[in-house]
Amino acid sequence: MSELLPGMGLLPSHTPAEPRASSVVILYRRARDGVGVEVFWVKRERALAFAGGFYAFPGGKLDRDDADVPVQGVQGEEAALRSAAARELFEEAGVLVAEGARSLSPEALAEARNAQLAGTVKWSGWLASQGLSLRAEDLKPAGRWITPPWAPVRFDTRFYLVELPEGASASIIAGELSEGAWIRPADALSRWSDGTALLHPPAQHALQVLAEFTDDSDARARLSTPPYCPGYVAQRIEFQRGVRVVALETPTLPPATHTNAYVLGTGDLLVVDPGSSDVKQYAKLLSLVAGLKAEGMRPVAVVLTHHHGDHVGGALAVKERLGIPLWCHARTADRLDFPVERLLEDGEVLELGGPLPQRWRVLHTPGHAQGHLCLVDFRSKAAVVGDMVASVGSIVIDPPEGNMVDYLTQLRRLRDWPVTTLYPAHGSPVPDGPGKLDEYLRHRAQREAIILEAVPATGATLAEVVATAYADTPPLLHPVAERSALATLEKLVAEGRVREESFSWFRLGGGAGA
Q1: Could you tell me the superkingdom of the organism this chain comes from (predicted)?
Q2: Could you tell me the pTM of the whole model?
Q3: What band does 48 get if pLDDT is binned at 50, 70 and 90?
Q4: For residue 161, how many other CB atoms are within 10 A of its CB?
Q5: Count of domains observed in the chain
Q6: Which domain holds residue 461?
């Protein structure tokens, strides 16, 4: 993404998406050694638009048919939510929680599960045909969570705690899920700490509660009262230990509406890209840091990935409020109108003390901006990547600040580092970092080929090239497309495949328009 380009005007304020009702089941069983419990967690297929690549529990949104299923002990919405929970548990884990379920053979259950996933039977009709009934007491309430307002897709999710029924077994069918396994909560949290299992706040909280399991009632009471969660919305989002995100509404290019500020560390803290100048926005960031300070943590610096307004809008205010220095690259510092205390260079290591010490390597990654930096964690290889990639929208390369050759070079450098999870400035984390970087490289190569094809030997203006090469892009965004097209044309000129004369571009070596 980028800051707004001249002439784009003011964008409307962000309107949060309406949350969709959904249900999730925390399925557990007593550990085989008699100490504590194990939970059945699943990994969502990385290509999924919502929480792709994250670990979670079986669940999903309500279907219309869920309201047609009677549930003993509850009615209305509560019945539909429990019906959805039971259905999702059956579809995703193969566990049927229903009165009469033990009368069905494993083969009959497998056949019904496949039919349910294929959509060839209705949940309500199948339950009735088998003489099965749902009971509220089998699906015990264990909390409610609502996706934060900044997310493009939101859910209002009820959680239910279910102990694995006697004789049942859990497994996944590949599709929307890529993994499913029983795991001790402490082991799952260890993977979260290592950065090898990304978690959303509800799953993180559930694992922390169940790691100290004593009995069902105590677990449900603690599951239903998570900290830092007013109105069921998480105020602390820590996808892996020591990597927290606060999404701040900023004037950035659509479809993005927010810029992610990151708070890194478990003792010493770095505050990365406080991008909003709106006090109501950066106050959310300051509130998080204040809470962490109350727990004994210490902010040491504000770090900027680059100088664009949607990344630095609140930098001065945040650094002054916290009384900490500002660090960035020299090519960022000379574009700011406030002082910088430290200039960061490629290869430096930022050491953060704490219960889980962190070491972040600084990578100078010009292309989107001359002073652009990324931070890569030594331990997990996770990378805070600013505007190198985005999981919502695309990245604009805007000359003369932007340079396509440099940008592509740095995409390859990050891919080959190698990195794991990417934490972009816009959108959700990207668990498969190398895959996303390869995707960007392929996309740029494809777009370059289209732009080259749109340049005739007889010449064309930039606007004419864009009209042809970006025919798949809404005309409203053509001013933005022009900037990246210009960066590509400059690359083609440097390679001797195109020449520029009097604001027109000419393809060399024959081809289209020759």
Answers
A1: Bacteria
A2: 0.94
A3: confident
A4: 22
A5: 3
A6: 455-507
